[in-house]
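Hi W., the zinc ion complex you wanted:
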Amino acid sequence: MASRSYRTEAIVLKTLDLGEADRILTLLTRHFGKVRVVAKGIRKPLARLAGYAEPLTHGTFQLARGRNLDVLTGAESRAHYATLRGDLVSIAAGWYVAELADRFTADHLPAAPIFDLVENALRHLDAGHGAALVCRWFDLHLLDRSGFRPEVIVCVNCSGSLVEGQNAWSSAAGGALCPSCVARAGESFAQLSLRALKSLRYLLASDFASASRLRVDAPLAAEIERHLRGSVHQVIDRDVVTARFQDEIARLPRRSPVLA
Ligand SMILES: [Zn+2]
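Structure:
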């Protein structure tokens, strides 16, 4: 059977070296969902397409249908994300976005809303927006677009309203719990502060332009991150490797501005 060729806009989520000189790319395409393709000879010196076979590359890819995996035959860049790549915190956030996009999508199942979300997140990281805010906005909207929208408007258990009080977050239940459901359950949950609840509501209802106006101090950021990490873990049932890497970077001593 003659091989057929097609073009698709895609973002490289991850790569895996194969044999002497080849590499398998996991692409999130705009129209065909997640596709794994082989880039032959890409690790040879002077390989023509080497620059396109790196994680977080956003381009239009020319692919030929293969018996097992499709084969990369050409590429044009759409975005370099040079600023993102120049900053350790931003690139770690980019890898986090890519890892979650990989975990939340299945091969060959169209996922255009998730493609758009990933593209948005990378563009805002590249524009210099705070990595934590981009990641939390991404977490919430990824959960939403994947059918796991956390309940932040009413109690996830009894649908009662969430007023100021001892609300809690339950990743297993899928969102916020009211004080009476918390009391009835007789087990301990993560406390959900009112300002975290309001922030989650705001982020979930906002595009990034609006989300970027949210002012979040360190304790609030840590609380929101804890809740959303729980929710993400609940869906994928495993740790997020790149989140651990982000934690390690956060623990690095900061360069003194005097010495910078
Ligand atoms: Zn309740």
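The first strand starts at residue 5 and ends at 18.

W.
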